[in-house]
Amino acid sequence: IRERVYQRVRGGEGLVLVHPQLGMDESDRKLWEVSPLVNLPSTKLGRRARYLVGDFNTFAFDAEYDVAVSSLALHHLATDADKRGFYRRIYDALVPGGVFYNADVVLGSSDALQAMYMQKWQAFMRQNVSRGEMENTWLPKYYDEDRPARLTDHLAWLDQVGFTDVDVVWK
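User: That's the sequence. What structure does it adopt?
Assistant: Structure tokens below.
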């Protein structure tokens, strides 16, 4: 996907919007804004990409873009209506033919699939972090901070706001 993003931005402008973690205080936000991550796109895309730090609930796009990328962020929006509204704002900020890539936390399309996905995630965590970290950090954060929606809902919302060729390219 990275290479496709680089190809799409040639001659135009791309956007990576960073939503600070929930619970950050003002000093944390200031540190995040000067983080090397904010300047990461310039290493490959030069001036053609921008990282913007902002609150998804109030962010106003200030230009049109060839490509927009979101990764592990939109599941922090509190409601499904917030997610649909943000998809609409992204769509409206793209040039005709522009693309949006989203890699995010989603729920399975059924309770059985969701239970299987959670089991797989926990198995992955058991291989990579301590049981205490999994049980005391990651699982509580997931249940307290994350508000994912079903994958099928995301696909429908993207289609409803006008995106074409809506699909899952990596799962």
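The chain has a mean pLDDT of 77.
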